[in-house]
Amino acid sequence: MKMDIFPLLFRVALLAVSVLGQTTDVEELARMNADFATRLYSKIASSSDDNVAVSTLGATLALATLAAGAGGASRTELLQGIGVASMEKEGEPERIQTLLKQLRVTTAQIQATALFVKQDVKANDTFSNQVKQFYNADVQNVNYANGELAKESIDNYVRTKTGEKVKDVVKNVDPKSIAMLISATFFTGYWLKPFNITFTQEDRFFVNKYNIVQVPMMLHSGKYYLAYDPILKVGILKLPCEDGIAMLVLLPDEDVDYTHVDESMTGEVFRGWVAKLKKTKLEVQLPRFSLKQSNSLSVSLPSLGIREIFGSTADLSGISSDESLKLSEVVQKVTMEVDENGGSVSDASTNLFTSPLPPRLTFNRPFIFIVYHEATKSILYIGRVVDPTKN
Ligand SMILES: *[C@@H]1O[C@H](CO)[C@@H](O)[C@H](O)[C@H]1NC(C)=O
Ligand SMILES: *[C@@H]1O[C@H](CO)[C@@H](O)[C@H](O)[C@H]1NC(C)=O
Protein backbone atom coordinates (compact mmCIF):
# COMPACT_ATOMS: atom_id res chain seq x y z
CA MET A 1 0.00 0.00 0.00
CA LYS A 2 2.77 2.36 0.98
CA MET A 3 4.34 2.04 -2.47
CA ASP A 4 1.24 3.30 -4.19
CA ILE A 5 1.10 6.61 -2.47
CA PHE A 6 4.25 8.03 -4.05
CA PRO A 7 3.16 7.90 -7.67
CA LEU A 8 -0.10 9.47 -6.55
CA LEU A 9 1.68 12.26 -4.69
CA PHE A 10 3.90 12.75 -7.68
CA ARG A 11 0.91 13.11 -9.95
CA VAL A 12 -0.70 15.58 -7.56
CA ALA A 13 2.52 17.58 -7.55
CA LEU A 14 2.60 17.63 -11.35
CA LEU A 15 -0.98 18.81 -11.47
CA ALA A 16 -0.21 21.60 -9.03
CA VAL A 17 2.69 22.75 -11.17
CA SER A 18 0.66 22.81 -14.35
CA VAL A 19 -2.14 24.76 -12.65
CA LEU A 20 0.41 27.23 -11.33
CA GLY A 21 1.99 27.48 -14.77
CA GLN A 22 -1.35 28.34 -16.28
CA THR A 23 -2.04 31.06 -13.74
CA THR A 24 1.32 32.58 -14.49
CA ASP A 25 0.54 32.81 -18.19
CA VAL A 26 -2.72 34.65 -17.53
CA GLU A 27 -0.96 36.88 -15.03
CA GLU A 28 1.72 37.62 -17.60
CA LEU A 29 -0.94 38.44 -20.17
CA ALA A 30 -2.67 40.72 -17.65
CA ARG A 31 0.64 42.43 -16.92
CA MET A 32 1.30 43.05 -20.62
CA ASN A 33 -2.25 44.29 -21.13
CA ALA A 34 -2.16 46.71 -18.18
CA ASP A 35 -0.18 49.30 -20.13
CA PHE A 36 -2.77 49.26 -22.90
CA ALA A 37 -5.44 49.76 -20.23
CA THR A 38 -3.75 52.79 -18.67
CA ARG A 39 -2.80 54.32 -22.03
CA LEU A 40 -6.33 53.95 -23.38
CA TYR A 41 -7.72 55.55 -20.23
CA SER A 42 -5.20 58.41 -20.32
CA LYS A 43 -6.04 59.06 -23.96
CA ILE A 44 -9.81 59.10 -23.46
CA ALA A 45 -9.51 61.11 -20.23
CA SER A 46 -7.31 63.72 -21.89
CA SER A 47 -10.02 64.56 -24.40
CA SER A 48 -12.61 65.43 -21.75
CA ASP A 49 -13.09 67.49 -18.58
CA ASP A 50 -15.97 65.35 -17.37
CA ASN A 51 -16.57 61.93 -15.90
CA VAL A 52 -14.87 59.08 -17.72
CA ALA A 53 -15.48 55.32 -17.70
CA VAL A 54 -13.47 52.96 -19.85
CA SER A 55 -13.87 49.21 -19.95
CA THR A 56 -10.29 48.32 -20.68
CA LEU A 57 -10.99 44.58 -20.73
CA GLY A 58 -13.97 45.18 -23.02
CA ALA A 59 -11.74 47.12 -25.41
CA THR A 60 -9.11 44.38 -25.26
CA LEU A 61 -11.64 41.67 -26.13
CA ALA A 62 -13.14 43.81 -28.90
CA LEU A 63 -9.72 44.32 -30.48
CA ALA A 64 -8.83 40.65 -30.04
CA THR A 65 -12.07 39.83 -31.88
CA LEU A 66 -10.91 41.98 -34.78
CA ALA A 67 -7.42 40.46 -34.66
CA ALA A 68 -8.97 37.01 -35.14
CA GLY A 69 -10.11 38.11 -38.59
CA ALA A 70 -7.29 40.46 -39.49
CA GLY A 71 -4.08 39.74 -41.36
CA GLY A 72 -0.69 41.31 -41.95
CA ALA A 73 0.09 44.65 -40.34
CA SER A 74 -3.55 45.10 -39.29
CA ARG A 75 -3.30 42.04 -37.08
CA THR A 76 0.21 42.80 -35.78
CA GLU A 77 -0.79 46.32 -34.74
CA LEU A 78 -3.84 45.05 -32.88
CA LEU A 79 -1.89 42.43 -30.93
CA GLN A 80 0.95 44.85 -30.20
CA GLY A 81 -1.55 47.55 -29.26
CA ILE A 82 -3.27 45.44 -26.60
CA GLY A 83 0.18 44.36 -25.43
CA VAL A 84 -0.07 40.64 -26.07
CA ALA A 85 1.99 40.20 -29.25
CA SER A 86 5.01 38.81 -27.40
CA MET A 87 2.81 36.10 -25.87
CA GLU A 88 2.52 34.40 -29.28
CA LYS A 89 4.34 31.07 -29.61
CA GLU A 90 5.37 29.06 -32.66
CA GLY A 91 3.11 26.08 -33.15
CA GLU A 92 0.45 27.33 -30.72
CA PRO A 93 -1.86 29.34 -32.95
CA GLU A 94 -4.59 29.60 -30.33
CA ARG A 95 -2.43 30.51 -27.34
CA ILE A 96 -3.41 34.17 -27.04
CA GLN A 97 -7.07 33.44 -27.65
CA THR A 98 -7.05 30.74 -25.00
CA LEU A 99 -5.43 33.01 -22.43
CA LEU A 100 -7.80 35.88 -23.19
CA LYS A 101 -10.71 33.48 -22.84
CA GLN A 102 -9.44 32.42 -19.40
CA LEU A 103 -9.19 36.06 -18.42
CA ARG A 104 -12.70 36.77 -19.70
CA VAL A 105 -14.18 33.80 -17.85
CA THR A 106 -12.36 34.36 -14.53
CA THR A 107 -13.28 38.03 -14.37
CA ALA A 108 -16.96 37.27 -15.04
CA GLN A 109 -18.08 40.71 -16.16
CA ILE A 110 -21.38 41.35 -17.89
CA GLN A 111 -20.41 42.20 -21.41
CA ALA A 112 -21.44 41.95 -25.02
CA THR A 113 -19.17 42.10 -28.04
CA ALA A 114 -20.51 42.02 -31.57
CA LEU A 115 -19.44 42.82 -35.07
CA PHE A 116 -22.32 44.13 -37.15
CA VAL A 117 -21.66 43.85 -40.84
CA LYS A 118 -23.63 45.25 -43.75
CA GLN A 119 -26.43 42.99 -44.93
CA ASP A 120 -24.88 41.77 -48.18
CA VAL A 121 -21.46 40.95 -46.71
CA LYS A 122 -21.16 37.28 -45.83
CA ALA A 123 -18.91 36.69 -42.82
CA ASN A 124 -16.58 33.70 -42.80
CA ASP A 125 -17.96 30.91 -40.57
CA THR A 126 -14.52 29.96 -39.27
CA PHE A 127 -14.11 33.52 -37.97
CA SER A 128 -17.63 33.66 -36.48
CA ASN A 129 -17.15 30.35 -34.68
CA GLN A 130 -13.75 31.30 -33.36
CA VAL A 131 -14.77 34.64 -31.87
CA LYS A 132 -17.84 33.03 -30.35
CA GLN A 133 -15.74 30.30 -28.76
CA PHE A 134 -13.04 32.54 -27.31
CA TYR A 135 -14.64 35.93 -26.77
CA ASN A 136 -18.34 35.06 -26.70
CA ALA A 137 -18.59 37.59 -29.53
CA ASP A 138 -21.29 37.51 -32.19
CA VAL A 139 -21.23 38.37 -35.85
CA GLN A 140 -24.51 39.67 -37.23
CA ASN A 141 -25.76 41.22 -40.42
CA VAL A 142 -27.57 44.52 -40.20
CA ASN A 143 -29.32 46.73 -42.72
CA TYR A 144 -27.33 49.95 -42.42
CA ALA A 145 -29.19 51.58 -45.30
CA ASN A 146 -32.04 52.10 -42.85
CA GLY A 147 -30.23 53.93 -40.07
CA GLU A 148 -33.11 53.84 -37.59
CA LEU A 149 -33.64 50.12 -38.02
CA ALA A 150 -29.92 49.40 -37.75
CA LYS A 151 -29.73 51.38 -34.51
CA GLU A 152 -32.69 49.40 -33.17
CA SER A 153 -31.15 46.03 -34.08
CA ILE A 154 -27.90 46.94 -32.36
CA ASP A 155 -29.74 48.24 -29.32
CA ASN A 156 -31.90 45.11 -29.07
CA TYR A 157 -28.86 42.89 -29.29
CA VAL A 158 -27.07 44.71 -26.46
CA ARG A 159 -30.16 44.88 -24.24
CA THR A 160 -30.68 41.14 -24.58
CA LYS A 161 -27.04 40.27 -23.98
CA THR A 162 -26.69 42.46 -20.90
CA GLY A 163 -30.09 41.73 -19.38
CA GLU A 164 -31.32 45.28 -20.07
CA LYS A 165 -28.38 46.72 -18.14
CA VAL A 166 -26.89 48.56 -21.10
CA LYS A 167 -29.00 50.63 -23.49
CA ASP A 168 -28.60 53.21 -26.24
CA VAL A 169 -25.19 52.11 -27.38
CA VAL A 170 -25.17 54.19 -30.54
CA LYS A 171 -26.82 57.58 -30.93
CA ASN A 172 -27.15 57.38 -34.67
CA VAL A 173 -25.93 55.06 -37.35
CA ASP A 174 -24.37 56.26 -40.56
CA PRO A 175 -26.29 54.53 -43.40
CA LYS A 176 -22.98 54.24 -45.26
CA SER A 177 -21.51 52.06 -42.49
CA ILE A 178 -20.07 48.71 -43.54
CA ALA A 179 -18.95 47.16 -40.27
CA MET A 180 -19.26 48.36 -36.69
CA LEU A 181 -17.77 46.68 -33.70
CA ILE A 182 -19.82 47.18 -30.58
CA SER A 183 -18.67 46.44 -27.06
CA ALA A 184 -20.98 46.96 -24.11
CA THR A 185 -20.20 46.35 -20.45
CA PHE A 186 -21.99 46.72 -17.17
CA PHE A 187 -20.38 46.96 -13.77
CA THR A 188 -21.94 47.06 -10.39
CA GLY A 189 -19.77 46.93 -7.31
CA TYR A 190 -21.16 44.28 -5.02
CA TRP A 191 -19.04 45.30 -2.06
CA LEU A 192 -17.80 42.72 0.36
CA LYS A 193 -18.35 45.41 2.98
CA PRO A 194 -21.55 47.13 1.95
CA PHE A 195 -22.25 50.71 2.93
CA ASN A 196 -25.21 50.94 5.28
CA ILE A 197 -27.85 53.14 3.63
CA THR A 198 -28.92 54.44 7.07
CA PHE A 199 -25.72 56.46 7.19
CA THR A 200 -25.92 57.91 3.67
CA GLN A 201 -26.42 61.68 3.81
CA GLU A 202 -26.46 64.59 1.43
CA ASP A 203 -23.09 66.26 1.56
CA ARG A 204 -20.95 68.66 -0.43
CA PHE A 205 -18.73 67.59 -3.30
CA PHE A 206 -16.20 70.08 -4.63
CA VAL A 207 -16.22 69.66 -8.42
CA ASN A 208 -13.77 72.56 -8.71
CA LYS A 209 -13.07 75.95 -7.13
CA TYR A 210 -16.31 77.42 -8.45
CA ASN A 211 -18.70 74.52 -8.43
CA ILE A 212 -19.98 72.67 -5.37
CA VAL A 213 -22.74 70.06 -5.69
CA GLN A 214 -24.81 68.12 -3.17
CA VAL A 215 -24.43 64.34 -3.39
CA PRO A 216 -25.61 61.29 -1.46
CA MET A 217 -22.43 60.49 0.47
CA MET A 218 -22.16 56.90 1.66
CA LEU A 219 -20.32 55.97 4.84
CA HIS A 220 -18.66 52.82 6.08
CA SER A 221 -16.33 52.27 8.96
CA GLY A 222 -14.07 49.28 9.18
CA LYS A 223 -10.72 47.80 8.21
CA TYR A 224 -9.51 48.85 4.80
CA TYR A 225 -6.41 48.53 2.68
CA LEU A 226 -4.86 51.94 2.16
CA ALA A 227 -1.70 53.42 0.64
CA TYR A 228 -0.23 56.81 -0.23
CA ASP A 229 1.91 57.59 -3.25
CA PRO A 230 4.25 60.45 -2.19
CA ILE A 231 5.49 61.03 -5.75
CA LEU A 232 2.11 61.54 -7.40
CA LYS A 233 0.62 62.77 -4.11
CA VAL A 234 -2.39 60.52 -4.25
CA GLY A 235 -4.16 58.41 -1.63
CA ILE A 236 -5.17 54.89 -2.66
CA LEU A 237 -8.03 52.95 -1.08
CA LYS A 238 -9.08 49.40 -1.93
CA LEU A 239 -12.75 48.50 -1.86
CA PRO A 240 -13.11 44.72 -2.28
CA CYS A 241 -16.05 43.40 -4.29
CA GLU A 242 -17.46 39.92 -4.88
CA ASP A 243 -15.96 37.49 -7.41
CA GLY A 244 -12.36 38.39 -6.60
CA ILE A 245 -12.76 41.90 -8.00
CA ALA A 246 -11.66 45.08 -6.22
CA MET A 247 -11.86 48.79 -6.87
CA LEU A 248 -8.95 51.09 -6.14
CA VAL A 249 -10.18 54.59 -5.48
CA LEU A 250 -7.54 57.28 -5.92
CA LEU A 251 -7.83 60.62 -4.20
CA PRO A 252 -5.26 63.18 -5.34
CA ASP A 253 -4.13 65.65 -2.67
CA GLU A 254 -6.06 68.91 -2.70
CA ASP A 255 -3.27 70.77 -4.44
CA VAL A 256 -2.87 68.12 -7.13
CA ASP A 257 -4.67 68.28 -10.45
CA TYR A 258 -6.27 64.89 -11.20
CA THR A 259 -5.11 65.15 -14.82
CA HIS A 260 -1.56 64.74 -13.51
CA VAL A 261 -2.53 61.33 -12.10
CA ASP A 262 -4.39 60.47 -15.36
CA GLU A 263 -1.25 61.12 -17.35
CA SER A 264 1.18 59.40 -15.00
CA MET A 265 -0.67 56.12 -14.64
CA THR A 266 1.03 53.03 -16.10
CA GLY A 267 0.75 49.32 -15.50
CA GLU A 268 3.78 49.49 -13.26
CA VAL A 269 2.46 52.43 -11.25
CA PHE A 270 -0.80 50.50 -10.75
CA ARG A 271 1.01 47.38 -9.51
CA GLY A 272 3.14 49.56 -7.23
CA TRP A 273 -0.01 50.97 -5.63
CA VAL A 274 -1.46 47.50 -5.07
CA ALA A 275 1.81 46.29 -3.52
CA LYS A 276 1.86 49.20 -1.05
CA LEU A 277 -1.62 48.68 0.40
CA LYS A 278 -1.69 48.22 4.17
CA LYS A 279 -4.57 47.31 6.42
CA THR A 280 -5.87 50.11 8.61
CA LYS A 281 -8.98 51.18 10.47
CA LEU A 282 -10.83 53.85 8.60
CA GLU A 283 -14.08 55.66 8.02
CA VAL A 284 -14.72 55.96 4.32
CA GLN A 285 -17.08 58.43 2.68
CA LEU A 286 -17.75 57.85 -0.99
CA PRO A 287 -20.46 59.45 -3.12
CA ARG A 288 -22.92 57.24 -4.92
CA PHE A 289 -22.37 57.49 -8.63
CA SER A 290 -23.69 56.11 -11.85
CA LEU A 291 -21.85 56.43 -15.14
CA LYS A 292 -23.03 55.91 -18.69
CA GLN A 293 -20.27 56.58 -21.15
CA SER A 294 -19.81 55.95 -24.84
CA ASN A 295 -16.26 55.84 -26.12
CA SER A 296 -15.46 55.91 -29.81
CA LEU A 297 -12.34 53.78 -29.92
CA SER A 298 -11.74 54.57 -33.57
CA VAL A 299 -10.90 58.08 -32.37
CA SER A 300 -8.55 57.05 -29.53
CA LEU A 301 -6.78 54.01 -30.96
CA PRO A 302 -4.71 55.54 -33.78
CA SER A 303 -2.60 57.49 -31.27
CA LEU A 304 -1.97 54.21 -29.44
CA GLY A 305 -0.50 52.72 -32.61
CA ILE A 306 -3.63 50.95 -33.86
CA ARG A 307 -4.22 52.63 -37.24
CA GLU A 308 -4.03 50.13 -40.04
CA ILE A 309 -7.32 48.42 -39.20
CA PHE A 310 -9.20 51.69 -39.81
CA GLY A 311 -7.41 52.58 -43.04
CA SER A 312 -8.05 51.76 -46.67
CA THR A 313 -5.33 49.08 -46.66
CA ALA A 314 -6.80 47.19 -43.69
CA ASP A 315 -6.54 43.43 -44.05
CA LEU A 316 -9.87 41.99 -42.86
CA SER A 317 -9.64 38.95 -45.10
CA GLY A 318 -10.34 36.52 -42.25
CA ILE A 319 -13.68 38.17 -41.53
CA SER A 320 -14.90 38.05 -45.11
CA SER A 321 -13.54 37.68 -48.61
CA ASP A 322 -15.83 40.54 -49.66
CA GLU A 323 -13.53 43.29 -50.93
CA SER A 324 -15.90 46.05 -49.84
CA LEU A 325 -15.50 45.15 -46.15
CA LYS A 326 -14.16 48.07 -44.16
CA LEU A 327 -14.29 48.86 -40.47
CA SER A 328 -16.44 51.94 -39.95
CA GLU A 329 -16.43 52.31 -36.19
CA VAL A 330 -15.54 50.66 -32.88
CA VAL A 331 -17.82 51.86 -30.12
CA GLN A 332 -17.77 51.01 -26.46
CA LYS A 333 -20.58 51.66 -24.03
CA VAL A 334 -19.86 51.42 -20.33
CA THR A 335 -22.51 51.49 -17.63
CA MET A 336 -21.53 51.54 -13.97
CA GLU A 337 -23.67 51.68 -10.86
CA VAL A 338 -21.90 52.36 -7.61
CA ASP A 339 -24.09 52.51 -4.52
CA GLU A 340 -24.37 51.02 -1.03
CA ASN A 341 -25.09 47.52 -2.27
CA GLY A 342 -23.03 44.56 -1.47
CA GLY A 343 -23.43 40.88 -0.93
CA SER A 344 -25.90 39.79 1.71
CA VAL A 345 -23.23 39.43 4.40
CA SER A 346 -23.00 42.63 6.36
CA ASP A 347 -19.77 43.50 8.09
CA ALA A 348 -20.31 42.50 11.69
CA SER A 349 -17.25 44.41 12.91
CA THR A 350 -18.85 47.67 11.85
CA ASN A 351 -19.70 49.95 14.65
CA LEU A 352 -19.70 53.61 13.90
CA PHE A 353 -19.80 54.70 17.48
CA THR A 354 -16.83 52.94 19.00
CA SER A 355 -14.21 55.30 20.29
CA PRO A 356 -11.64 56.46 19.51
CA LEU A 357 -12.95 57.32 16.04
CA PRO A 358 -10.75 56.09 13.22
CA PRO A 359 -9.43 58.59 10.67
CA ARG A 360 -11.89 59.50 7.98
CA LEU A 361 -11.22 59.48 4.24
CA THR A 362 -13.74 61.55 2.31
CA PHE A 363 -14.02 61.44 -1.46
CA ASN A 364 -15.50 64.89 -1.76
CA ARG A 365 -13.51 66.08 -4.77
CA PRO A 366 -12.70 64.51 -8.15
CA PHE A 367 -11.30 60.99 -7.87
CA ILE A 368 -10.13 58.20 -10.13
CA PHE A 369 -10.96 54.51 -9.88
CA ILE A 370 -9.45 51.29 -11.19
CA VAL A 371 -11.47 48.08 -11.10
CA TYR A 372 -9.29 45.00 -11.28
CA HIS A 373 -9.23 41.26 -10.78
CA GLU A 374 -7.14 40.66 -7.68
CA ALA A 375 -5.60 37.26 -8.43
CA THR A 376 -4.36 38.15 -11.92
CA LYS A 377 -4.12 41.96 -11.41
CA SER A 378 -5.99 42.31 -14.64
CA ILE A 379 -7.40 45.81 -15.11
CA LEU A 380 -11.09 45.74 -16.03
CA TYR A 381 -12.18 49.38 -15.83
CA ILE A 382 -10.57 52.75 -15.28
CA GLY A 383 -12.57 55.88 -14.77
CA ARG A 384 -12.81 59.29 -13.20
CA VAL A 385 -15.60 60.93 -11.27
CA VAL A 386 -15.40 64.69 -11.61
CA ASP A 387 -19.05 65.36 -10.79
CA PRO A 388 -21.06 62.52 -9.21
CA THR A 389 -24.36 64.23 -10.04
CA LYS A 390 -23.71 63.65 -13.74
CA ASN A 391 -23.49 60.52 -15.88
C1 LIG B 1 -12.66 31.22 -44.02
O1 LIG B 1 -11.46 31.38 -43.28
C2 LIG B 1 -10.66 30.21 -43.24
C3 LIG B 1 -9.50 30.47 -42.29
O2 LIG B 1 -9.04 31.78 -42.38
C4 LIG B 1 -10.21 29.88 -44.66
O3 LIG B 1 -9.42 28.71 -44.65
C5 LIG B 1 -11.45 29.66 -45.52
O4 LIG B 1 -11.06 29.46 -46.87
C6 LIG B 1 -12.39 30.86 -45.46
N1 LIG B 1 -13.66 30.54 -46.11
C7 LIG B 1 -14.18 31.26 -47.09
C8 LIG B 1 -15.49 30.81 -47.61
O5 LIG B 1 -13.64 32.28 -47.51
C1 LIG C 1 -27.51 49.82 9.44
O1 LIG C 1 -27.35 50.59 10.58
C2 LIG C 1 -28.50 50.62 11.45
C3 LIG C 1 -28.27 51.65 12.56
O2 LIG C 1 -27.05 51.37 13.24
C4 LIG C 1 -28.75 49.20 11.96
O3 LIG C 1 -29.89 49.18 12.77
C5 LIG C 1 -28.93 48.26 10.78
O4 LIG C 1 -29.05 46.92 11.22
C6 LIG C 1 -27.75 48.38 9.82
N1 LIG C 1 -28.03 47.59 8.62
C7 LIG C 1 -27.18 46.69 8.16
C8 LIG C 1 -27.62 45.99 6.90
O5 LIG C 1 -26.13 46.42 8.67
Write a short abstract of this structure.
By secondary structure, the protein is α+β, with helices and mostly antiparallel strands. It has 2 domains: 37-189 and 291-336, Antithrombin, subunit I, domain 2 (Antithrombin, Chain I, domain 2, 2-Layer Sandwich), CATH 3.30.497; 197-288 and 344-385, Roll (Alpha-1-antitrypsin, domain 1).
Describe the structure.
The protein is α+β, with helices and mostly antiparallel strands and 391 residues long. It has 2 domains: 37-189 and 291-336, Antithrombin, subunit I, domain 2 (Antithrombin, Chain I, domain 2, 2-Layer Sandwich), CATH 3.30.497.10; 197-288 and 344-385, Alpha-1-antitrypsin, domain 1, CATH 2.30.39. Helices cover 33% and strands 30% of the residues. The structure holds 2-acetamido-2-deoxy-beta-D-glucopyranose (2 copies). One 2-acetamido-2-deoxy-beta-D-glucopyranose (NAG) is lined by residues 196, 198, 346.
